[in-house]
Each structure stands twice: as C-alpha cells, then as structure tokens.
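User: I'm preparing a small set of examples for a lab meeting where we compare how different chains pack in three dimensions. I only have the primary sequence for this one, and I'd like the structure in token form so I can line it up with the others. Please keep the answer compact; I'll paste it straight into my notes.
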Amino acid sequence: MEISMALYDSNIFGPMKYHSIQNFVLQIYARSGLQSDVSEPAKPVQDSVQSSEVQKEVIVINSPDDWENECAKSYRGICVLAFFDSSSTTYDVNYMRTVMNSIISKLGKSVAAFRMLAADAYCQVSFTDMFGISVTSVPTVTIYSPLKGRYASFRGAFKEETVQEFLDGVLNGRISTGPLSQRPVFSSSCEGTDSGMSAEQSGDDADSNELLEEIKREEAARKLQLKKELEEEKKRIAEEKKKMEEEKANSQKKKKKKNKKKKASSNDEL
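Assistant: Understood. Below is the structure token output for the 270-residue chain.
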C-alpha cells in the first residue's frame, strides 16, 4: 500500500472550515481509489462536486450556459480547462478530446477531484485572456477554482504525462495559484476572425518571415562584401598604376643622366 501526503491549499479550497475541509477530504478520498472497498461511500456535500459519478469524457464548453452549469460560481472543486484551436487542423477539438480522454482514463477515480472541460481558444479570445492564454499558447490547460477565484496555467510541453504531473501537483499543493480580478465571462459568439491566425499558421508565418529576413541579411552582407572587394581592387590598381608611373619616371631620369654623362665624356675627348 502506497502512502503519500497531500497538502491543504487554502487558495483553492478556502479557509479551514467544516465544508472546505470536508470537500478537501472527499476529493483526496476519491483519488485514493478506496471507494471501491466501501459498500456505501459517503455522499459529498451539496455543490462540492458537480456529479457523484466519475467523469469518463471531457466536456466541451460551447456556450455561457455550459460554462455556468459545468463550472458554477458555487462549485467548490477544481475546473480543468483544456484549450484547443478550432481554426487549426492539428490542435482542434478532436485532438483535445483524444488527449484529455486518455488522461481521464489514466487518472481513474482520481479524476473525481476535477471537472474536466475543454474550450475553443480561437473563439473565446476574451475568456482565455483572463487566464493569460492566447490562441498561440494552444494546446494547454488551466485549473480554476470558481469559489476562490484563483487559477494556475500549465507551462511546458503539452503531453499526457506532463499534464498529469501538473494536475497531481495542484492537488498536492506543489503548484501555486494566482488570483483573478473577476470571473471569466464566456462569450455567446465566436470572437475569432478570418484574419486571425491560429498557433499553427502564426508559427508558419513567423518561420517564413524569419527566413525572408535571413535572406535579406545575407544579401546585404554579400553586397557589402562585394563593394569592399571592388574598392580594394580599385585601390590596388591605382597603387600599381602609381608605382608604374614612378618607375617610368625614375627610368627616364636615369636615362637622361646617362645621356648627360656620355655627352660630357665626348666633350672631354675632344
């Protein structure tokens, strides 16, 4: 039998009062898997969990009503929001369903500590911005405590193993949370536009722009080098020309001196 410690995080569960402590104990109890050994498990306090059944699949939030029903203001548990990009052919809702359902399956009874949800970051621009997330951050997850108005966003490579470690860290108090100024509002319409870029498109355009800039820099460097070489060649030719003129002038002077000596010698003989 494995023994582990779970820390009570007042930022998520609230002050240490009866209902808050009971909610914390029930969530840890659900994670332990000991419920299967009890014929009649204790029922959670009303609104401490949204459902007595263990969640099997991620729930996609498509409207303000969905948001209020699945992660109500009075919900004492932790909502896990997985963000996908409907404008992407890679990180769309089907991709997120596959990943999150796999995580839910691996968590087993431990998933009872969370409400596993998914939302479209492309359409819910204002909503995701409240959590410090944009469409370029997709795929990613955020945990949110509606009762306390606190959250923590996942950082790192989005993989099943790393997301599971993140969720485990939340329950064990290893992940610190931050406050929200107000409850995020889910838009009733899609805020994404055709001119908006998905994370995939943005990345492709960024790569293309970077390549163009690199080509421009290389071209400018080649022109500068060619100009430098031409200037050096002109300088070399000018120096050679000057040297040849000087040698020619010296040769003529020597020739004149030689002719003068010959003329003087002839006069002496006479």
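A couple of notes for your slides: The first helix runs from residue 10 to 13. The CA atoms of residues 187 and 224 lie 54 Å apart.

User: Perfect, thanks.
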